[in-house]
Amino acid sequence: MYMIVVNGQSRTCAPGRTLRELLAETGYAQRRVAVEVNREIVPKSQHALREILDGDRIEIVHALGGG
Amino acid sequence: MNAQLQPNVAIDDALVIAGRAYRSRLLTGTGKFKDLEETRRATDAAGAQIVTVAIRRTNIGQDRNAPNLLDVLPPQKYTILPNTAGCYSAEDAVRTCRLARELLDGHALVKLEVLGDQKTLFPDVVQTLKAAEILVAEKFEVMVYTSDDPILARRLEEIGCVAVMPLAAPIGSGLGIQNRWNILEIVENAKVPVLVDAGVGTASDAAIAMELGCDGVLMNTAIACAKNPVLMAAAMRKAVEAGRDAFRAGRIPRKRYASASSPLDGTLG
User: Fold this and answer.
1) ipTM score assigned to the predicted complex
2) With an 8 Å Cβ cutoff, are B39 and A59 in contact?
3) What is the pTM of this model?
4) Is B111 a catalytic residue?
5) Which chain A residue shows the shortest CA-CA distance from B38?
6) Of B77, B111, B191, B227, which residue is the catalytic one?
7) pLDDT in tens, B148-178
8) Do the Cβ atoms of B30 and A65 come within 8 Å?
9) Are A61 and B171 in contact (CB < 8 Å)?
Protein backbone atom coordinates (compact mmCIF):
# COMPACT_ATOMS: atom_id res chain seq x y z
CA MET A 1 0.00 0.00 0.00
CA TYR A 2 1.08 3.52 -0.72
CA MET A 3 0.91 6.19 1.94
CA ILE A 4 -0.41 9.50 0.68
CA VAL A 5 -1.62 12.75 2.26
CA VAL A 6 -4.94 14.22 1.14
CA ASN A 7 -5.87 17.68 2.45
CA GLY A 8 -3.42 17.24 5.29
CA GLN A 9 -4.69 13.77 6.33
CA SER A 10 -2.66 10.60 5.85
CA ARG A 11 -4.35 7.70 4.10
CA THR A 12 -3.46 4.54 2.26
CA CYS A 13 -3.88 4.05 -1.44
CA ALA A 14 -3.57 0.93 -3.55
CA PRO A 15 -0.82 1.10 -6.18
CA GLY A 16 -2.06 1.86 -9.69
CA ARG A 17 -4.96 4.07 -8.71
CA THR A 18 -5.58 7.25 -10.62
CA LEU A 19 -6.52 10.65 -9.32
CA ARG A 20 -9.94 10.24 -10.87
CA GLU A 21 -10.50 7.06 -8.89
CA LEU A 22 -9.43 8.76 -5.68
CA LEU A 23 -11.86 11.62 -6.35
CA ALA A 24 -14.69 9.16 -6.98
CA GLU A 25 -13.84 7.29 -3.79
CA THR A 26 -13.86 10.47 -1.70
CA GLY A 27 -17.13 11.70 -3.23
CA TYR A 28 -15.86 14.37 -5.60
CA ALA A 29 -16.44 12.67 -8.96
CA GLN A 30 -19.26 14.98 -9.99
CA ARG A 31 -18.25 18.03 -7.99
CA ARG A 32 -16.49 21.20 -8.96
CA VAL A 33 -13.04 20.86 -7.40
CA ALA A 34 -9.46 21.70 -8.31
CA VAL A 35 -6.61 19.34 -7.52
CA GLU A 36 -2.96 19.84 -6.74
CA VAL A 37 -0.44 17.02 -6.41
CA ASN A 38 2.82 17.96 -4.72
CA ARG A 39 1.94 21.64 -5.27
CA GLU A 40 1.41 21.22 -9.00
CA ILE A 41 -2.09 21.62 -10.41
CA VAL A 42 -3.37 18.59 -12.25
CA PRO A 43 -5.95 19.79 -14.80
CA LYS A 44 -9.33 18.04 -14.90
CA SER A 45 -8.45 16.55 -18.27
CA GLN A 46 -5.51 14.74 -16.66
CA HIS A 47 -7.30 13.27 -13.63
CA ALA A 48 -7.94 9.93 -15.33
CA LEU A 49 -4.33 9.70 -16.51
CA ARG A 50 -2.49 10.78 -13.38
CA GLU A 51 -1.49 7.74 -11.38
CA ILE A 52 -1.08 8.26 -7.65
CA LEU A 53 2.42 7.54 -6.37
CA ASP A 54 3.68 6.68 -2.93
CA GLY A 55 4.15 9.79 -0.81
CA ASP A 56 2.01 12.08 -3.00
CA ARG A 57 0.61 15.10 -1.20
CA ILE A 58 -2.76 15.92 -2.69
CA GLU A 59 -4.91 19.00 -2.16
CA ILE A 60 -8.55 19.07 -3.21
CA VAL A 61 -10.12 22.53 -3.06
CA HIS A 62 -13.50 24.03 -3.80
CA ALA A 63 -15.24 27.41 -3.62
CA LEU A 64 -17.11 28.42 -0.51
CA GLY A 65 -18.52 31.55 1.04
CA GLY A 66 -16.01 34.35 1.49
CA GLY A 67 -15.65 38.09 1.21
CA MET B 1 -21.23 33.29 -20.62
CA ASN B 2 -24.60 34.80 -19.80
CA ALA B 3 -26.02 37.63 -21.90
CA GLN B 4 -25.87 40.06 -18.99
CA LEU B 5 -22.10 39.67 -18.83
CA GLN B 6 -21.47 40.39 -22.49
CA PRO B 7 -19.39 43.52 -23.05
CA ASN B 8 -21.47 44.73 -25.98
CA VAL B 9 -24.78 44.89 -24.19
CA ALA B 10 -25.75 48.53 -23.97
CA ILE B 11 -26.00 49.42 -20.31
CA ASP B 12 -26.46 53.01 -19.25
CA ASP B 13 -23.54 54.06 -17.03
CA ALA B 14 -22.07 50.58 -16.93
CA LEU B 15 -19.24 49.52 -14.65
CA VAL B 16 -16.63 48.02 -16.98
CA ILE B 17 -14.11 45.63 -15.47
CA ALA B 18 -11.63 43.79 -17.70
CA GLY B 19 -13.78 44.57 -20.74
CA ARG B 20 -17.05 43.28 -19.28
CA ALA B 21 -19.93 45.63 -18.53
CA TYR B 22 -22.02 45.43 -15.39
CA ARG B 23 -25.22 47.18 -14.42
CA SER B 24 -24.59 46.76 -10.69
CA ARG B 25 -21.87 48.65 -8.87
CA LEU B 26 -22.37 46.70 -5.66
CA LEU B 27 -20.15 43.63 -5.37
CA THR B 28 -20.89 41.29 -2.51
CA GLY B 29 -19.07 38.65 -0.54
CA THR B 30 -20.64 35.30 0.22
CA GLY B 31 -19.11 34.61 3.65
CA LYS B 32 -20.68 34.68 7.12
CA PHE B 33 -24.27 34.10 6.01
CA LYS B 34 -26.50 31.77 8.06
CA ASP B 35 -26.90 29.35 5.17
CA LEU B 36 -26.79 29.18 1.39
CA GLU B 37 -30.44 30.19 1.09
CA GLU B 38 -29.74 33.42 2.95
CA THR B 39 -26.66 33.95 0.76
CA ARG B 40 -28.83 33.57 -2.33
CA ARG B 41 -31.59 35.90 -1.09
CA ALA B 42 -29.16 38.61 0.06
CA THR B 43 -27.17 38.45 -3.17
CA ASP B 44 -30.40 38.80 -5.10
CA ALA B 45 -31.58 41.74 -2.95
CA ALA B 46 -28.20 43.43 -3.44
CA GLY B 47 -28.58 43.06 -7.19
CA ALA B 48 -24.93 41.99 -7.27
CA GLN B 49 -23.54 40.60 -10.52
CA ILE B 50 -20.03 39.99 -9.19
CA VAL B 51 -19.68 37.86 -6.06
CA THR B 52 -16.55 36.89 -4.20
CA VAL B 53 -15.83 33.34 -3.08
CA ALA B 54 -13.04 31.78 -1.04
CA ILE B 55 -10.96 28.81 -2.18
CA ARG B 56 -10.53 26.21 0.56
CA ARG B 57 -9.73 22.57 1.13
CA THR B 58 -12.73 20.31 0.89
CA ASN B 59 -13.85 18.51 4.04
CA ILE B 60 -13.34 14.94 2.97
CA GLY B 61 -16.16 12.69 4.10
CA GLN B 62 -18.26 15.58 5.39
CA ASP B 63 -19.52 17.44 2.36
CA ARG B 64 -20.38 14.54 0.10
CA ASN B 65 -24.01 15.60 -0.27
CA ALA B 66 -23.82 19.14 1.01
CA PRO B 67 -25.14 21.83 -1.33
CA ASN B 68 -22.41 23.76 -3.08
CA LEU B 69 -22.12 27.54 -3.18
CA LEU B 70 -21.73 27.49 -6.95
CA ASP B 71 -25.04 25.60 -7.29
CA VAL B 72 -26.73 28.52 -5.53
CA LEU B 73 -24.74 31.23 -7.34
CA PRO B 74 -24.06 29.62 -10.73
CA PRO B 75 -21.14 30.98 -12.77
CA GLN B 76 -23.51 31.19 -15.76
CA LYS B 77 -25.45 33.89 -13.95
CA TYR B 78 -22.83 35.60 -11.77
CA THR B 79 -19.26 36.65 -12.33
CA ILE B 80 -17.47 34.63 -9.68
CA LEU B 81 -14.59 36.51 -8.11
CA PRO B 82 -12.35 34.08 -6.24
CA ASN B 83 -10.34 35.77 -3.51
CA THR B 84 -7.06 35.01 -1.81
CA ALA B 85 -8.39 35.73 1.68
CA GLY B 86 -6.32 34.13 4.39
CA CYS B 87 -3.09 34.40 2.39
CA TYR B 88 -0.18 36.10 4.14
CA SER B 89 2.43 35.74 1.39
CA ALA B 90 2.63 36.40 -2.33
CA GLU B 91 3.41 32.73 -2.87
CA ASP B 92 0.22 31.53 -1.15
CA ALA B 93 -1.89 34.11 -2.96
CA VAL B 94 -0.53 33.13 -6.38
CA ARG B 95 -1.05 29.44 -5.58
CA THR B 96 -4.66 30.14 -4.60
CA CYS B 97 -5.32 32.08 -7.81
CA ARG B 98 -3.92 29.26 -9.95
CA LEU B 99 -6.20 26.78 -8.16
CA ALA B 100 -9.16 29.12 -8.65
CA ARG B 101 -8.45 29.32 -12.37
CA GLU B 102 -8.41 25.54 -12.61
CA LEU B 103 -11.58 25.30 -10.49
CA LEU B 104 -13.46 27.82 -12.62
CA ASP B 105 -12.42 26.48 -16.03
CA GLY B 106 -9.78 29.01 -16.97
CA HIS B 107 -11.51 32.03 -15.44
CA ALA B 108 -8.91 34.80 -15.11
CA LEU B 109 -10.62 37.38 -12.88
CA VAL B 110 -9.38 37.22 -9.27
CA LYS B 111 -9.45 39.35 -6.15
CA LEU B 112 -5.93 39.56 -4.80
CA GLU B 113 -5.51 40.21 -1.12
CA VAL B 114 -2.37 39.49 0.84
CA LEU B 115 -2.81 40.18 4.53
CA GLY B 116 -0.26 41.58 6.95
CA ASP B 117 -1.49 40.39 10.33
CA GLN B 118 -4.54 38.88 11.96
CA LYS B 119 -5.36 41.77 14.23
CA THR B 120 -5.80 44.44 11.57
CA LEU B 121 -6.12 42.30 8.43
CA PHE B 122 -4.42 45.23 6.74
CA PRO B 123 -2.87 44.37 3.39
CA ASP B 124 0.81 43.51 3.26
CA VAL B 125 1.57 45.91 0.45
CA VAL B 126 5.03 44.55 -0.34
CA GLN B 127 3.68 41.04 -0.82
CA THR B 128 0.64 42.41 -2.66
CA LEU B 129 2.84 44.18 -5.23
CA LYS B 130 4.93 41.05 -5.69
CA ALA B 131 1.88 38.82 -6.18
CA ALA B 132 0.26 41.32 -8.55
CA GLU B 133 3.33 41.30 -10.80
CA ILE B 134 3.35 37.51 -11.01
CA LEU B 135 -0.40 37.24 -11.60
CA VAL B 136 -0.49 39.92 -14.30
CA ALA B 137 2.42 38.16 -16.05
CA GLU B 138 0.37 34.94 -15.93
CA LYS B 139 -2.56 36.74 -17.63
CA PHE B 140 -4.80 36.94 -14.60
CA GLU B 141 -7.21 39.88 -14.41
CA VAL B 142 -6.37 41.20 -10.99
CA MET B 143 -8.72 43.23 -8.82
CA VAL B 144 -6.47 44.19 -5.96
CA TYR B 145 -7.33 44.90 -2.34
CA THR B 146 -4.99 47.53 -0.96
CA SER B 147 -4.55 50.19 1.68
CA ASP B 148 -5.91 53.69 1.03
CA ASP B 149 -2.51 54.91 -0.19
CA PRO B 150 -2.67 56.84 -3.47
CA ILE B 151 0.94 56.11 -4.43
CA LEU B 152 0.51 52.40 -3.94
CA ALA B 153 -2.78 52.46 -5.85
CA ARG B 154 -0.94 54.03 -8.78
CA ARG B 155 1.82 51.41 -8.66
CA LEU B 156 -0.75 48.61 -8.72
CA GLU B 157 -2.44 50.20 -11.71
CA GLU B 158 0.92 50.54 -13.47
CA ILE B 159 1.61 46.85 -12.89
CA GLY B 160 -1.58 46.11 -14.82
CA CYS B 161 -4.28 45.41 -12.24
CA VAL B 162 -7.77 45.77 -13.77
CA ALA B 163 -9.26 47.40 -10.66
CA VAL B 164 -7.83 48.97 -7.53
CA MET B 165 -9.76 48.35 -4.31
CA PRO B 166 -8.67 50.44 -1.35
CA LEU B 167 -10.11 49.67 2.06
CA ALA B 168 -12.50 52.09 3.75
CA ALA B 169 -11.47 50.70 7.14
CA PRO B 170 -10.30 47.30 8.45
CA ILE B 171 -12.15 44.26 7.08
CA GLY B 172 -15.32 43.59 9.04
CA SER B 173 -14.90 46.68 11.23
CA GLY B 174 -17.93 48.59 9.93
CA LEU B 175 -16.15 51.88 10.62
CA GLY B 176 -16.89 53.40 7.23
CA ILE B 177 -14.51 55.50 5.16
CA GLN B 178 -11.72 56.66 7.43
CA ASN B 179 -9.82 58.79 4.96
CA ARG B 180 -12.05 60.17 2.28
CA TRP B 181 -9.34 62.51 1.02
CA ASN B 182 -7.11 59.56 0.23
CA ILE B 183 -9.98 57.75 -1.51
CA LEU B 184 -10.69 60.91 -3.52
CA GLU B 185 -7.04 61.19 -4.50
CA ILE B 186 -6.98 57.55 -5.63
CA VAL B 187 -10.19 58.04 -7.66
CA GLU B 188 -8.91 61.19 -9.35
CA ASN B 189 -5.60 59.59 -10.36
CA ALA B 190 -6.91 56.25 -11.55
CA LYS B 191 -7.64 55.13 -15.09
CA VAL B 192 -8.96 51.75 -13.94
CA PRO B 193 -12.07 51.29 -11.78
CA VAL B 194 -11.64 52.09 -8.09
CA LEU B 195 -13.83 50.17 -5.69
CA VAL B 196 -13.97 50.61 -1.95
CA ASP B 197 -13.46 47.16 -0.48
CA ALA B 198 -13.86 46.44 3.22
CA GLY B 199 -14.86 48.47 6.24
CA VAL B 200 -18.30 49.64 5.17
CA GLY B 201 -20.80 49.51 8.04
CA THR B 202 -24.08 50.84 6.78
CA ALA B 203 -25.80 52.33 3.75
CA SER B 204 -24.49 55.88 4.19
CA ASP B 205 -20.89 54.59 4.10
CA ALA B 206 -21.53 53.04 0.70
CA ALA B 207 -23.23 56.23 -0.52
CA ILE B 208 -20.23 58.31 0.57
CA ALA B 209 -17.86 56.04 -1.34
CA MET B 210 -19.92 56.49 -4.48
CA GLU B 211 -20.31 60.25 -3.98
CA LEU B 212 -16.53 60.49 -3.85
CA GLY B 213 -16.52 59.03 -7.35
CA CYS B 214 -15.67 55.42 -6.63
CA ASP B 215 -16.77 53.07 -9.39
CA GLY B 216 -18.20 50.53 -6.99
CA VAL B 217 -18.24 49.09 -3.50
CA LEU B 218 -17.43 45.56 -2.38
CA MET B 219 -18.76 44.40 0.97
CA ASN B 220 -19.56 41.25 2.91
CA THR B 221 -19.81 41.65 6.68
CA ALA B 222 -22.02 44.76 6.60
CA ILE B 223 -24.69 42.72 4.84
CA ALA B 224 -24.12 39.21 6.19
CA CYS B 225 -23.86 40.26 9.85
CA ALA B 226 -26.70 42.79 9.85
CA LYS B 227 -29.70 41.69 11.92
CA ASN B 228 -31.64 41.39 8.67
CA PRO B 229 -29.11 40.65 5.94
CA VAL B 230 -31.62 40.64 3.07
CA LEU B 231 -33.02 44.04 4.06
CA MET B 232 -29.50 45.45 4.48
CA ALA B 233 -28.57 44.12 1.05
CA ALA B 234 -31.52 46.03 -0.43
CA ALA B 235 -30.47 49.16 1.51
CA MET B 236 -26.92 48.87 0.18
CA ARG B 237 -28.17 48.50 -3.37
CA LYS B 238 -30.13 51.73 -3.05
CA ALA B 239 -27.25 53.53 -1.32
CA VAL B 240 -24.80 52.59 -4.07
CA GLU B 241 -27.27 53.69 -6.74
CA ALA B 242 -28.11 56.93 -4.92
CA GLY B 243 -24.45 57.73 -4.30
CA ARG B 244 -23.62 57.09 -7.95
CA ASP B 245 -26.48 59.29 -9.17
CA ALA B 246 -25.46 62.07 -6.77
CA PHE B 247 -21.88 61.89 -8.04
CA ARG B 248 -23.01 62.08 -11.66
CA ALA B 249 -25.49 64.87 -10.89
CA GLY B 250 -22.74 67.04 -9.39
CA ARG B 251 -23.30 68.25 -5.88
CA ILE B 252 -23.50 71.93 -4.91
CA PRO B 253 -20.40 73.40 -3.33
CA ARG B 254 -20.32 73.64 0.45
CA LYS B 255 -20.80 77.20 1.69
CA ARG B 256 -20.62 78.55 5.16
CA TYR B 257 -23.67 80.82 5.01
CA ALA B 258 -27.27 80.49 3.89
CA SER B 259 -28.58 80.95 0.38
CA ALA B 260 -32.36 81.43 0.21
CA SER B 261 -34.34 78.92 -1.82
CA SER B 262 -37.33 81.21 -2.46
CA PRO B 263 -37.18 84.41 -4.58
CA LEU B 264 -36.22 87.54 -2.68
CA ASP B 265 -38.31 89.75 -5.01
CA GLY B 266 -42.01 90.26 -4.25
CA THR B 267 -41.90 89.60 -0.56
CA LEU B 268 -44.77 91.39 1.27
CA GLY B 269 -43.81 94.92 2.35
Assistant:
1) 0.95
2) no
3) 0.92
4) yes
5) A65
6) B111
7) 999 999 999 999 999 999 999 999 999 999 9
8) yes
9) no
Q: List pLDDT tens digits, range B60-112.
A: 877 666 788 999 999 999 999 999 999 999 999 999 999 999 999 999 999 99
Summarised one tens digit per residue, pLDDT across range A2-58 is: 999 999 999 999 999 999 999 999 888 888 999 999 999 999 999 999 999 999 999
Element (H, E) at A11: strand A9-13
